[in-house]
Amino acid sequence: MSLLSVDELAVTFGGRGMREVNAVSGVSFSVDEGQVVGLVGESGCGKSVTSLALMGLLPNKGVRVGGRAMFRTGRGETVDLLTLGRSALRDLRGTQLAMIFQDPLSSLNPVVPIGVQVTEILTRHRGLRGQAARKEAAHLLDRVGIPDPTRRLKEYPHQLSGGMRQRALIAMAVACAPRLLIADEPTTALDVTIQAQILELLKELVDDQGTALLMITHDLGVVAGMCDTVNVLYAGKVVEAAGRRPLFAAPAHPYAHGLLGSIPRLDAPRGERLNPIRGSINDTIAWQDGCAFAPRCDFYVDECLRGTPQLAALPRGADGHDVRCVNPVMTGPPETTTLLDKPTTPEETASGGDDDPDGGDGEGPAAGGGTDEDTGTGSGTEASA
Amino acid sequence: MTTKTAKIDRLAELTARRETATGGSLWAEALRRLRSSKMAMIGGGIMAVFVIIAIVGPWIAPYDPTAQTWRGEVRVNAAVFVGPRGDNWLGLDHLGRDELSRMLVGARQTLLVGVVSTVLGLTIGALIGGVAGAALSFGGAAGRRLDTVLMRFIDMMLAMPSLLLAVSIAAVMGQSLTTVMIAVGVVQIPIFARLLRGSMLAQAGADYVLAARALGVRRRRIVLGHVLPNSLGPVIVQTTLALATAIIEAAALSYLGLGNPDASQPEWGVMLAQAQRFFDQAPMMAVYPALGIIITALGFTLLGEAMREALDPKLRS
Amino acid sequence: MLRLIVRRLLQLIPTLFGLTILLFLWINRLPGGPASALLGERATEADRRQIEAALGLDEPVWIQYGRWMERLFQLDLGTSVQTGQPVWEEFTQRFPATVELALTAILIAVVIGIPLGYFAARRRGSWLDVTAVSGSLIGVCIPVFFLAFLLRALFAVNLGWLPSVGRQSTGIDATEVTGFFVLDGLLTGEWDASWDAIEHLVLPGVALASIPLALIVRITRASVLEVLGEDYVRTAESKGLNQRVVRGRHVMRNALLPVVTTVGLATGSLLSGAVLTESVFAFGGIGSFIQTAIDGRDYPVLMGFILFIALTYVFINLLVDLAYSVIDPRVRVN
User: CB-based contact (8 Å) between B314 and chain C?
Assistant: First the structure.
């Protein structure tokens, strides 16, 4: 059984007099022990709301949460995170479940020294106090790569650099060796050079402690570098779920396909146009009317508007490759996918290629055809304007 | 081709259904939020009633507010109070004048005190604050010096508590309605000055101003065309709130004996101050003008607070 | 810390200096100045000149100012026209009463206002919140002196629960040590005297507290609401900390920053509020004295009072700055 299995998680905002918004409408995925699972999608697709719902950090008022999120605790019990009582959840948070947030500056209390913010979690969950707590805190800071930790403990967040702050937050998150770590866009607010360091650190810690990691990101580079399995979210639903390799090799949902296709490649001929997905996440329809992605989709057929498409195994797909689409792309990756071809980490190159079923024949002409059609209409509109 | 058009239409329709009601400028959005705010509606309602009474009050007053109606014989050194009765709904005051007529006529004077003093404070305060803000943001070293001088002056005014500042003005200028208006107005100057300056500084640091400067837009145009209009929100809110404060402060000045000595022109603050002396005998004579002041001030305050909320970008969703 | 205090004090000098010039010109040079106040309306020009010469008012302004400042540094604020006593003595005598009243008021406002604002924010939209918000909106709209009259009429005159005037009941035989009656009672062990003084403080204290209380409730509520939405509070929650720690260390310590400023400002304005409240209760502090001074155009007293208030304001601002630098490390560095 998985460490965490989320089943039809739904989060609705709004209440008395306000228009209701389904931020998350039926998300299901699971995380196994020690696994790194990605939750990918553009901003507004519901990935952050999902993570907050799992942590029980959504506001009490004006929010309705549905579905189940079964979590296996260290004592072997299985609890539903969504219905667990407040105090029981408090006991889980920080010890079994921990979270790292996107913006390290605003996520740290500006008027409390870093040291106190680290030791308070040790006091709460591990009963450490005074000198012992400070020593352990210094050790934690040292472990996440903060130099001169004893001095840093006395400093305030505004005295640290961005990368340092995120390291401090990570130190707090791993202080009690949680079973599941949720990282919500942990590198988005950081410089590119720091991003790689932070990801490397996360990977190390997760491997050391055997912690499972739920990685929430919009950055496909991060996914390619870190995740074992990937869930692609669109408008509050998982539209594609697959292992990393199958996903990058043969993205089946037009959204995932488009997402990969929109990455610029270095070796493209000069002057070649980029391939963005048309429109924005606001150009959407309600899931009960059909596929929310239909208004932006290049592979749109009439059937797309006949009710909610189901998440189902991809015909002729790899194991565990599910897609929510009536007309999935069966032609392999878009021409521009290069993320896996380039070695991101050493082991990546070592294992490259052999567990990759559709890898070789992926770049078929059909995919190119689809893109051409789109470009054709696009330039036509431009000419008339 | 037709099927394709139909398909696009259906998509468009479904998309439109999901479209959120966003868009519109800051002001349009604020107005929309204001209209849906209960606080704004109550405050605006009270304000409207007050303004209407202030305009038509003297015409609909049943009696001359200065005419003394004696009940039977004249008693020396004793106040004449008559409770509410058929002819005088709110009774008669200590000099036998019809309280309702005095309340109706007094509304105009009260509004006058509030508006004149607030306009005075707003004009001078905004001028000082605007010049200081513009000088500091766009005036270079000389501008910084000008700002320092102006703000030191404003600090000095702030260091004097409002009531005492008013008292010292009134003490020098003697007792009159004009004194009260000037005194209450002067007290508002530093508030408006600091507010507009602060608001302008925040705007001057915004990216769009940087962009305008980079594009070579003239400083005067940036200040008058962009920074100033965008800084006015808090000032408008403060103006509404200041109307409430002005009416209350004017009453306090009247209580301290600095108000309008001319009894033929009833004003709520003066009425309240005078009735205070007879509080143990006829508390209602104090309660009527007090209620008038409280309700009116509350109306302005509610509207001001609602406007503050409507204009707060942090609350926009 | 010491350097900060010194720097702030130095910054205050020009402001205070300017204030004295302003005050001096105001009181001495404008129509209705001291000469006419002494002489009354019907004085002849000759009378006026004579009295001006006697008071040194015919000399150049800057010499007059210099002399005035010299006396000011010797705590010589002149003589009260009403009582014929030195203004400084009149003040020091009445000072304890007003300070006691102002402290009572600010204590009431802080002790009730901060928790009320906090719980109103936590239970946003509840009856408690609605009551707190509407109460604070109405609170700032009631003229202080009217509220004082209402309280006195209701609780002192009609119900008789509390004394209606003064600082001390006539039957109490209290030893005066510091002039602060509550403190005196505690020092000498005369508990009944302390209790009596407290009873006398309740009604004027509540009336005077009304506006600061309303302001503190509103600012605390707004500030807590803002902090509750901050990322670091979410972080604290995500660490599974006890509610007590989240509320105290993470919410309140940040939310108190703007509250501190408001308490400071409110304390500054309390003294002028005291002028209105004290007279209703015949409290016998500086406030009552000032009201009679306004009536009698007692300029030396008024001027002394304004200077005194300005100094208080400046001192309170300094305290607020220091409090800020203790609570907020970001200020310390700058």
Answer: yes
